[in-house]
Design brief:
Blueprint lengths: L8 H11 L4 E7 L6 E6 L5 E5 L4 E4 L7 E2 L8 E6 L5 E5 L3 E5 L7 E5 L11 E6 L5 E5 L4 E4 L7 E3 L7 E6 L5 E5 L4 E4 L7 E3 L7 E7 L3 E6 L4 E4 L7 E2 L8 E7 L2 E6 L4 E4 L7 E3 L7 E6 L4 E5 L3 E6 L2
Antiparallel strand pairs: 1-28, 2-3, 3-4, 4-5, 6-7, 7-8, 8-9, 10-11, 11-12, 12-13, 14-15, 15-16, 16-17, 18-19, 19-20, 20-21, 22-23, 23-24, 24-25, 26-27, 27-28
Amino acid sequence: MKLRNFAPIGAVLFLLAAIDAKAQWNVAFQDRSKQDLNVVFFVDSRLGWVVGDKGIVHVTQDGGREWLPHNARVDGNISDIFFRNREEGWMITSGAKIYRTQNGGSIWDPVFQFDAAGKRDAPEFYSIVFANKNLGWVVGTHGRILHSNDGGLSWASQESGTQEELVHLKFVNDRQGWIVGDKGIILYTDDGGKNWERQNSSVRSHLYHIEARGKDTAIVVGEEGVILRTSNGGENWERVAVDTKETLVNVGFVGNQGWIVGWNGTILRSGDGGKNWVEQESGTRANLYGLSVAKKEVWVSGAEGFVLKYSGN
């Protein structure tokens, strides 16, 4: 696969150094239990959620100035949370359980649990997303894709064509979406998941996250410093060169500004839509998992109960 010609690294370093001159990462919050905080999700500029292992949930209603513990009454480790608006949201937990709230998180109702034949067949769910009020998807182990067309009240399987672990999914609209997972797998649909086509990633690494920037451009991150980028809807995936071999687990954008987080406190930043990346000092060596990128603020969650906030230009 032919890689694009990228800008000279010196010019990129100079540009991002100028951008980051007044920017830094600070610890905004640390959970007392120091459990892993797997996801940070902001519904808008003021309302945000952080979720993690052992059912830990924290919520902020003032833009992250104060994080308050929230008893969601859910069992197990929470692997993902997604809100369509301030009132309607979903969580998935260990044991392949799906919870739903219709009142801003005051009450979380269990709406689905996978009925496995035995412990060996018991799946785990990792990622959940809704393209609109009715259409939702969940992915997990054993190549499993579940789909809902009634707002998450019922779920049915979609054929993935693989038994590999599926880790994260992203839908651009109600028809076009991607899934990434183990052994370099990238799946693509343009018909709402009726058919999933395997795209050629040209890697065998475990892929953890995909962020789509419109119908054509997307970024994928994974283990051993893997960053993949497409500008033609996944017909070709290009490897982006970076100076790290750390496992990268999350990526997010606002405009052309992008961030990637990963193990051992790794944070990378791009100022050109993901063509080039340079490392930022996070101030921690804890593994970082969750990422929420907004117009003015960037939030990261991770191991040891950390929540970091990025402040700067």
